[in-house]
């Protein structure tokens, strides 16, 4: 039977249930016995029926869309999260609407106003730089979840990794390989991830009895270009260093290139550790030792949690573990 001629009555007869039960399953408006729900879904599938979500949205007053504010379209890490978000909404009836906040508070607020004007049913913020007060206002207005950023008081509406612990473990790995003069190329100075990764760097050195040398700490902005500039600055300062911990993999790519241009070998002369485990990192020359953030899984969890909030349920979101991927960009000092 074609989708266009299949009716709720047909489904009810095939599943041996009432039409009202079929309607409840389609609209997901009331609790239906799991066996009965499965029978209805099987009947819908065998008859080739797909719910008309547009009609459902008109009847319910819902838009069946979700605003997703990313920070940089094309960013490998946020692309991973976005893919997880898409997978998480698959089959739910909700469609994600992506907009770009461009790491600018004013731009972010503007695009949020735009998606709110589309009457979205919920909001996912991937990272972001807006104030806690603005976040609180959003939370009061509609179901909202923040991804990739820890916000105080939002324990059940944030999806993030322990950046301090992950950075600490990465630097400890370098220390275990005998490195003592470890430089760091930071991220954007006001960015919470950058702040926490620096704290992990400082903590690991402190635990090893090493004071942070300000001359080995370079400002960056999560870009490859900032990695190149940081290496040039380090070499101009003339401070000895045997390893560089980078705020993300993009920075590490720039550090690797700048060292190569100066005839400095990786890892024979200088070791490098990144953060994020972007897709290309395993294929760098040499393959990059880096901290893996499970971006895809984080996106899926955020989408699933937001669906629960939009349906009036509560959700518990996990703190994700970041795992060090040991490859070939780190060598042991003799």
UniProtKB/TrEMBL annotation:
Pfam families: LacI, Peripla_BP_3
Protein name: Catabolite control protein A
Keyword Transcription assigned: yes
Residues in HTH lacI-type domain copies: 6-60
MF GO annotations: DNA-binding transcription factor activity; transcription cis-regulatory region binding
UniProt keyword terms in alphabetical order: DNA-binding, Repressor, Transcription, Transcription regulation
Family annotation (CDD domains): HTH_LacI
């Amino acid at each position: 039977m074609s989708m266009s001629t299949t009716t709720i009555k047909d489904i009810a007869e095939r599943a041996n249930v009432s039409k009202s039960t079929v309607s409840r399953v389609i609209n997901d408006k009331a609790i239906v016995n799991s066996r009965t729900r499965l029978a209805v879904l099987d009947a819908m599938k065998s008859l080739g029926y797909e719910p008309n979500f547009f009609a459902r949205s008109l009847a319910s007053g819902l838009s069946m869309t979700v605003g997703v504010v990313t920070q940089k379209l094309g960013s490998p890490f946020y692309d991973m999260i976005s893919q997880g978000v898409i997978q998480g909404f698959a089959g739910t009836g909700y469609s994600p609407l992506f907009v770009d906040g461009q790491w600018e508070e004013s731009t972010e607020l503007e695009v949020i106003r735009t998606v709110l004007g589309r009457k979205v049913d919920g909001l996912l913020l991937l990272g972001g730089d807006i104030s806690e007060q603005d976040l609180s206002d959003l939370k009061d207005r509609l179901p909202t979840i923040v991804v990739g950023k820890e916000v105080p008081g939002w324990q059940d509406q944030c999806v993030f990794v322990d950046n301090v612990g992950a950075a600490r473990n990465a630097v400890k790995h370098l220390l275990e390989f005998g490195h003592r003069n470890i430089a760091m190329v930071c991220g954007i100075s006001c960015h919470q991830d950058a702040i926490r990764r620096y704290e992990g760097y400082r903590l690991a050195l402190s635990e090893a009895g090493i004071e942070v040398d300000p001359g080995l700490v370079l400002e960056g902005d999560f870009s490859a270009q900032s990695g190149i500039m940081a290496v040039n600055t380090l070499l101009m300062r003339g401070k000895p260093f045997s390893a560089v911990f980078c705020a993300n993999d993009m920075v590490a790519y720039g550090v690797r290139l700048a060292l190569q241009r100066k005839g400095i070998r990786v890892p024979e002369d200088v070791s490098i550790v990144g953060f994020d485990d972007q897709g290309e990192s395993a294929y760098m020359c040499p393959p990059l030792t880096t901290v893996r953030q499970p971006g895809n899984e984080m996106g899926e969890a955020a989408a699933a949690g937001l669906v629960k909030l939009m349906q009036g349920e509560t959700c518990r979101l996990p703190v994700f573990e970041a795992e060090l991927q040991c490859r070939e960009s780190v060598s042991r000092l003799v």
